[in-house]
Amino acid sequence: MSAHSAQQRDEYLNLAIQLAVHNVSDGGGPFGAVVVTADGTVHEGVNRVTRDHDPTAHAEVVAIRRAAAASKRFDLTGSVLYASCEPCPLCLSATLWARIGHVYFAADRHGAAKAGFDDAVFYEYFAGTRPELLPVEHAELAASNEPFDAWRNHARRTAY
Ligand SMILES: Nc1nc2[nH]cnc2c(=O)[nH]1
């Protein structure tokens, strides 16, 4: 499913945009997303941050969670993500972990910034230009790598 036609692309992007518009009148954030899995199944997501009291409930993450749960897979190889807005670093990370193969988005991070969202600012953090936003410190302890030792020694581990 990684090579969608331009017509399919625009249809799914318009669906994501309509989900975003309707989510605003439903009291949520202005973001919608669609994951199309390799078998062509469509999984929709809308931003649920404020309604679910969940800062990670971005539209893309919600769509990925729904796609994974419905297909009973944590690896969504062959899927495509369509987002009404450029995925933020959180959503991109979730997309990478889901092994989704391609992303299309409509509005960009600068449009989100004009609506008051911090997507563009957080991109700057990951670009290394705003380190003051979040100090992250490495504290190496004697036991730091014990979890990985336990994992490597666990014969029946499920790798991901
Ligand atoms: N792409 C995207 N950016 C956001 N910024 C705040 N919420 C969201 C969301 O759900 N999706």
TrEMBL record:
Instruction: Look up keyword Hydrolase and say if it applies.
Output: yes
What is any one GO biological process for this UniProt entry? Answer: purine nucleoside catabolic process
Q: Which Pfam families does the entry mention?
A: dCMP_cyt_deam_1 (PF00383)
Q: Which GO terms describe its molecular function?
A: guanine deaminase activity; guanosine deaminase activity
Q: Which UniProt keywords apply?
A: Hydrolase
Q: Which superkingdom heads the taxonomic lineage of this protein's source?
A: Bacteria
Xref: SUPFAM superfamilies: Cytidine deaminase-like
Q: What's the Enzyme Commission number for this chain?
A: 3.5.4.3
> What InterPro entries does this protein map onto?
CMP_dCMP_dom, Cytidine_deaminase-like
CMP/dCMP-type deaminase domain location is 7-120
The protein in question is named: Guanine deaminase
Task: Specify the species.
Answer: Paenarthrobacter aurescens (strain TC1)
